[in-house]
Amino acid sequence: MTARVFPIYPVAPPRAARLAALGDLLRRHQRAILALQWIVVAAYLLLVSVPPFLGLPPERAGILDHLTRFAQFAFWGVWWPFVILSVIAFGRAWCGFLCPEGALTEWASRHGANRRPPRWLRWSGWPFVAFLTTTVYGQMVSVYEYPKPALLILGGSTFGALAVGFLYGRGKRLWCRHLCPVSGVFAILARIAPLHFRVDQEVWVRSGARAAPINCAPLVHLKTMTSAAECHMCGRCSGHKDAIRLALRAPGSEVVQGAASDASAWHARLLVWGMLGVATGAFQWSASPWLVAIKQRLAAWLVERDALVPLAHTGHWWLLTHYPETNDVFSWLDGIMVVGYIAATALALGAWVALWLAVAEKTLAIPRARYALAFTLTPFAGLTIFLGLFAVTTTQLAAEGFNLAWLPALRALVLAAGAAWSLVLSIAWIARQRAPRARQFAAIAPTSLALALPVCTWLVQFYLW
Q1: Which strand (E) or helix (H) includes residue 361?
Q2: For the chain, what is the mean pLDDT?
Q3: How confident is the model at residue 314 (pLDDT cuts 50, 70, 90)?
Q4: Predicted local distance difference test score (pLDDT) of residue 407
Q5: N or C, fewer C-beta in 10 Å, the chain?
Q6: How far is it, in rounded angstroms, from Cα 313 to Cα 38?
Q7: Mutual angle of helices 30-49 and 100-109, in 10-degree steps
Q8: Assign residue 142 a region: left if phi > 0, alpha if psi is -120 to 50, beta otherwise?
Q9: Which pLDDT score is estimated for 205?
């Protein structure tokens, strides 16, 4: 195995110059970007706040027939799945150009109390906790189907962004850096994006020119920035000291070239237990015949023993799905089963992946290698989240009468691409390590096995259920 893999793209000078010029264009047109952000904010507030007060649409209402249907398609059919793809391709440009919460929290931070951020706010585990809780709670209240839960979850997150910005922002996006429920996912996915802002530290050091300080809203230390994880791609720093330029790199090169000692443990946990575990369970429970069979047996067992409390309805849509007018009502048993299924899936998949990554670490005899190897699974994790969200898209398109004969082939292609890309990254990372050749070859097997169960889980959902 050779250690020289995945270099930065040898971009031709004209193309590199055009990319750098694009970055500089972003820097010069920050007012236009801000105007675009406020247009998105206005559209977002309209779509999240108005539908809950319109009542549920008629059963056969189409996307263009009722604002609630349109908002549902906009949020869950277009916004979320294609934001995931955009981060994989362009880094966190969504955060820098379009995210309404980012714009609102930064605006609030300029007019707020400017208090010192408390230590608890900077805990590295918040993105992990926020992602898990919002994902599970969203399934309990059927956030994809109804406008009230969307207002509660999305609106609650927006309120949190405003509050944190007002209290502690000091002109920065503290919410985005530490507390946003998807900031951890975006940080993971941005590591494999081919587009990024590259810092030439030698040029920075050699530059004798004084430059005005850059207000980096997501609190990135620009001089030492080597990762795209926290960069919002806004372009404010482009051309700074002639050392920061928009550039291309090989997709996943940041992951391959990352040292095991630098790998973020919390982001690795989010990827393994959250993106590969909890998210998979959240996408799959509604299609699982196993869940239906177990619930029916439990319900029968409870009826036989006259234990009817678990079969009762909560009566509160904000606790469990409760829409009698559409015959969509969760009992306590339904809620327990949904949460239990998601938890069991997360534990099974997370433990499987963590086990084989630990075996690979032991094989290589490199401390913390399991964390670095976890990031090589990012393409598969990101693309399966896209597929899970895209299932909402295709469900809505099918209701509109679109022909989806192409869908099975697309799913197979995306799953294969994600698995293959992840395997290539894992092999490339292993090849760069200072370990005996035999250990490097031996470590490939457990890393590949780590992907086996997640791949099989998605194949079962798409082609057996």
Answers
A1: helix 332-364
A2: 94
A3: confident
A4: 97
A5: C
A6: 41
A7: 110
A8: left
A9: 87
Residue with tokens 């048993």: 333
Closest to 96 measured CA to CA, from 153, 150, 176, 168: 176
Q: Which of 111, 92, 87, 117 is closest to 102 using CA atoms?
A: 92
User: What is the spatial distance between Cα 143 and Cα 154, in angstroms, rounded to a whole number?
Assistant: 10
Task: Assign 210 a pLDDT band (cuts: 50, 70, 90).
Answer: confident
CA-CA distance, 465 to 458, in Å (whole number)? 10
pLDDT in tens, 371-401: 999 999 999 999 999 999 999 999 999 999 9
Residue 200, SS3 per DSSP: coil
Q: Cβ distance 328 to 321 under 8 Å? A: yes
Element at 248 (helix H, strand E): strand 244-248
Distance of CA 461 to the CA centre of its chain: 21
Q: One-letter amino acid identity for 327?
A: N
Q: What is the mean pLDDT of residues 417-424?
A: 98
CB atoms within 10 A of CB 228: 26
Question: What are the backbone dihedrals phi and psi of residue 313, each rounded to the nearest 5 degrees, phi first?
Answer: -90, 150
Tell me the sheet residues that pair with 199.
244
Structure tokens at 428: 């490339």
The per-residue pLDDT for 60 is 86
Query: What's the length of the chain?
Result: 465
- CA distances (Å), origin 254, targets 167, 209, 261, 376: 35, 30, 14, 10
What is the pLDDT confidence band of residue 249, given thresholds at 50, 70 and 90? very high
Task: Indicate whether 52 pLDDT > 90.
Answer: yes
Q: Is the pLDDT of residue 37 over 80?
A: yes
Beta strands in 291-339 (DSSP E): 322-323, 328-329
Q: Residue 199 belongs to what H/E stretch?
A: strand 195-199
Tokens representing 226 are 């080597």
Are 76 and 144 in contact, with CB atoms under 8 Å apart? Answer: yes
Residue with tokens 């470590």: 443
User: What confidence tier does 3 reach under pLDDT thresholds 50, 70, 90?
Assistant: very low
The residues facing 329 across adjacent strands are 322
Q: Are 404 and 397 in contact (CB under 8 A)?
A: yes
Any idea which residue has 């050779």 for tokens? 2
* Residues 7, 11, 16, 18, CA torsion sign: negative
